[in-house]
Amino acid sequence: MAVSVDKAVAAGPARDRPPRVRRRGGRGRGRSLLEVVLLTVLAVVMLFPVLWMIETSIKENRDVYAIPAEFIGFTVTLDHFKDVFVAGDGGRSALSVAFLNSVVVAGVSTVLATVLGVPAAWAYSRFTLRAKKDQLFFILSTRFMPPVVVVVPIFLMYRQVGLIDTKLGLILIYAAFNVPFTIWMMKGFVDEVPAEYEDAAMLDGYTRLQAFWKFTLPLLVPGIAATAVFALIFSWNEFVFAIFLTSSDSVRTAPPAIAGLIGGTTVDWGLVAAASVVFALPVLVFAYLVRRHLVAGVTLGAVRR
Amino acid sequence: MAGIEVTALHKRYPDGTVAVDHVDLSIGDGELFVMLGPSGCGKTTTLRAIAGLERQTSGDIRIGDTLVNDLPPAERDIAMVFQFYALYPHLRTRDNLAFPLRAEGLPKPEVHARVEEAARLMRLGPLLDRRPRQLSGGEQQRVALARALVRRPRAFLMDEPLTNLDAELRADMRTEIKHLQGELGATMVYVTHDQVEAMSLGHRIAILHKGRVEQIGTPLQVYDRPASLFCAAFIGSPPMNLIEVEVADGTLRGKGGLTLTPPPGLPRDRRLVAGVRPEALEVTAPEAERSVPARVVSAEWLGDEIIYVVDHGGQQDVRVRMPPTVRFAADAPVGLRHTGGTPAVYDVSTEELVA
């Protein structure tokens, strides 16, 4: 094939054109083939752990340890999923309590961060403040370091005020981490809503807060949705604070609870996998539901009007 | 309708920016008053202070006989039209117009009658049941004007209402606003950075610069006798030629030898600059009577006129406005002479008009 192309090119100017077109077509096909191959490899590498997790969660224990590993043809069982929610004695399992804790902690901290962050973002967007840029930078700077850097001081402070091993403690620290993020992301959205709506409403007899509530806030809903999902994902997935600041089964959230399944003399990998699947699902579903808003949030500011 | 008095207005933001340094304005009842200036000159802040959307740091604002310093915007009985039309996006035109009236708590028949009247004035009939998204920019701005009208306010405040429209529409709306203002006898404060808009609309124009009023006057006064070097350089397209001159032998003489008739009462021993409009100069054949030798640097052919940029050996090239029939090639040797009356003369150090 390559030889024939070379021949055609060498044949002279008169016949130069058609082979060139053909060659370009061939290169295009080659590129798209390369793309497909690369993307497939990438997808397999990225998705294999997820796939393996799902497989393990529905395998019987003896199949989990089978060598060579069985990709297909094993007996499917849902026992592990039952074990996630139901304890051996028929009551609620520690994992199901942990999931409930995760829902409460992630949900409340996200609501708290949104309720505090959105008005703050509005204020930073609308008003001239002394050293506004410095304030905003300071707020952002709290996100510069990873949680593990501050976890020891936080631990000591929490011990003083009795917030160790409480859901409230986790809610507060997650909210504290999410407020800066909410302020920065929402400020972008508020900037996009013309201040004239509020001016017009104030001329029509509303107070500034009413104007914000009645006219600006409804236009911010997509932005709030996107921001809240990001905050929710952070709180839902957070591991470091959760494992350092909580210890009892009744308070622990899902990430440390799942991690806690590993480390005994025998590890029930089927249970670990099933718990991980259950843990991953809500965020996936939620992100899927608000995917349009998420994209809006991610690309915000990328396009200037 | 009512007049508006602004006394010693000063606005300083918490971050230290002084948006308005010192502004005094006296706007008459039924006057179309234009505030003109480059961006950041304080014109919009002044307007927003009159509206009550900004609280001034010091100074007084009176609308009619009422001191409105501490009144919220809604109680000042004014209506405002914004550059971005600020129509409520979820409301139909009809409800957008009725909105301020309902907020005031007027009875339904009254609301209906006023909406119909405003819609008739602005010819909005077919648009009444559309939402802002379904309207073009010009239509939106007409709705915004109508929304200001329905309130029958004591004064209208316009914040660059035509800036977002394309050129043709802008000219139409300009005529419409001027006509409307005349018909209603409305007091209108109009903020713009567009001098054509200011000249064509305003009964009087205030030119603002760095938070201060540089000049207040009718469009002709502002054009003929700019009160400061800033105004001279700001008004007119192209603006005045500013030529450094000396008083010699009863005439004003520029560096390039150009002679101008001196106005009476010129101060002695000061560096002076004469402001000469491009139409007060003439490009002539070389060595024409009273002309100084010059050279055409470039020519802008605008169709109805030609702007020649001419080097006559002065400190700066001057711009000359000529009819399209008078043609010289670039680089051609020509003559330059002054044909206008006495020019405006400024003191270089104070930058103000001296005679």
Describe the structure.
The complex is a heterodimer of chains A (305) and B (355). Chain A is an all-alpha fold. Chain A folds into two domains: 1-55, no CATH class; 84-298, MetI-like fold. Chain A is built from 14 helices and no strands. Chain A has helices at 2-10, 17-57, 61-64, 79-85, 94-126, 132-141, 147-161, 167-192, 196-203, 208-237, 240-245, 254-259, 269-289, 291-298. In chain A, α10 (208-237) crosses α14 (291-298). The radius of gyration of chain A is 27 Å and the shape is globular. Chain B has 355 residues and is of the alpha+beta class. Chain B is elongated. Chain B has two domains: 4-230, P-loop containing nucleotide triphosphate hydrolases (Rossmann fold, 3-Layer(aba) Sandwich), CATH 3.40.50.300; 231-347, Beta Barrel (OB fold (Dihydrolipoamide Acetyltransferase, E2P)), CATH 2.40.50.140. Chains A and B meet through α9 and α10 of A and β6 and α2 of B.
Q: How would you classify the quaternary structure?
A: heterodimer
Strand content of chain A: under 5%
CATH architecture type of the largest domain in chain A: Orthogonal Bundle
Number of strands of chain A: 0
H/E element sequence of chain A: HHHHHHHHHHHHHH
Provide the residue-averaged pLDDT of chain B.
90
CATH topology of the largest domain in chain A: MetI-like fold
CATH homologous superfamily annotation of the largest domain in chain A: MetI-like
Can you write the helix and strand succession of chain B as a string? EEEHEEEHHHEHEHEEHHEEEEEEEEEE
Total beta strand runs of chain B: 20
User: What Rg of chain A, in angstroms, do the CA atoms define?
Assistant: 27 Å
Q: Mind telling me the CATH class of the largest domain in chain B?
A: Alpha Beta
List keywords for this structure.
heterodimer; A: 305 residues; mainly alpha; MetI-like fold; 14 helices; 0% strand; disordered N terminus; B: alpha+beta; Rossmann fold; OB fold (Dihydrolipoamide Acetyltransferase, E2P); 6-stranded mixed sheet; 5-stranded antiparallel sheet; 8 helices; elongated
